[in-house]
Amino acid sequence: MPVKYGTKEWEEEYQKVVRERRKSHPKPTVPTPEWGQVFGEIVDGDAEYRAAAKTWEGAVTLVLQAKPELGLDEDVSVVLDLWHGDCRSVKILPKEEAAKAPYVMTGSIDTWKAVAKGKTDAIKATMLGKIKLKGNMANVVKHVKASKRLADCTGLFESVWPDELSKDEIKKFRADLKQFREQFGV
User: Fold this and answer.
1) What whole-number distance in Å separates Cα of residue 89 and Cα of residue 87?
2) Residue 106 lies in a domain
3) 104-122 pLDDT tens trace
4) Contact 126, 141 (CB under 8 A)
5) Residue 2 falls within a domain, yes or no?
6) Are 180 and 49 in contact (CB under 8 A)?
7) What is the tally of structural domains in the chain?
8) Separation of alpha carbons 111 and 166, rounded Å
9) Can you state the angle between helices 33-44 and 8-24, rounded to 10 degrees?
10) Labelling 134: which of 7, 82, 101, 122 has CA 20 to 30 A away?
11) Is 1 a member of any domain?
């Protein structure tokens, strides 16, 4: 039975599970909760992001669309709690909660990987319709340096993308993600 989102129990259990998963996944797979936590730590410690985002206010949800052949049977909503250059947390949240963020960016896992690997940038992908944005585009453009640096931070640590997994690893990734989603209602 899942713990109820929005409770102290959910938060405590989430942090405990992420700590345990990080021990066994030193090179986290995108978009797992341990990947999100490492990403958040990188963003929060990045002086360039902090300077560029000093006037940014509001959470950003990154929705990675389902791609069952890679073990993503459902969309995954990764929420970054960003405020004045700080990254207060990065968590996988229930889609209903994640959709409440002031900014929601939705794209395929392939598009997000291209952004992370520097093959395109998030603003360009948004303009081309590869990433759909819900929120104030003018504010995103005003903070283009922060947006670009946020995307750059995904490449500052070692991670594995689902398309880099073997078939057996995809099965395990799918099972692990399913178990996590069921436990936390995400």
Assistant:
1) 6
2) yes
3) 999 999 999 999 998 998 8
4) no
5) no
6) no
7) 1
8) 20
9) 90
10) 7
11) no
Looking at residue 161, its amino acid is: W
Let me know if residue 3 belongs to a domain: no
Query: pTM of the entire structure?
Result: 0.94
Look-up: residue for tokens 């968590």? 91
From residue 161, alpha-carbon distances to 103, 111, 158, 165, 183 in Å are 24, 12, 10, 7, 23
Distance of CA 185 to the CA centre of its chain: 17
Backbone angles phi, psi at 88, to 5 degrees: -75, -30
Using the Cα atoms of residue 36, residue 38, residue 44 and residue 47 in order, give the sign of their dihedral.
negative
DSSP, residue by residue, 106-156: EE-HHHHHHHHTTSS-HHHHHHTTSEEEES-HHHHHHTHHHHHHHHHHTTS
The tokens of 135 are what?
């929120």
**Alpha-carbon gap, residue 127 to 150, rounded angstroms:** 18
Q: Is 43 helix (H, G, I), strand (E, B) or coil?
A: helix
How far is Cα 133 from Cα 124, in angstroms, rounded to an integer? 12
**b vs e for 114-143, b when ≥16 Cβ sit within 10 Å of the residue's Cβ?**
bbbeeebbbbebbeeebbebeeeeeebeeb
- Show the domain range for 69: 8-184
Model pLDDT for residues 49-73, shown as the tens digit of each residue: 999 999 999 999 999 999 999 999 9
Tokens 């922060």 -> residue: 146
Query: Which CATH number belongs to the domain containing residue 145 in this structure?
Result: 3.30.1050.10
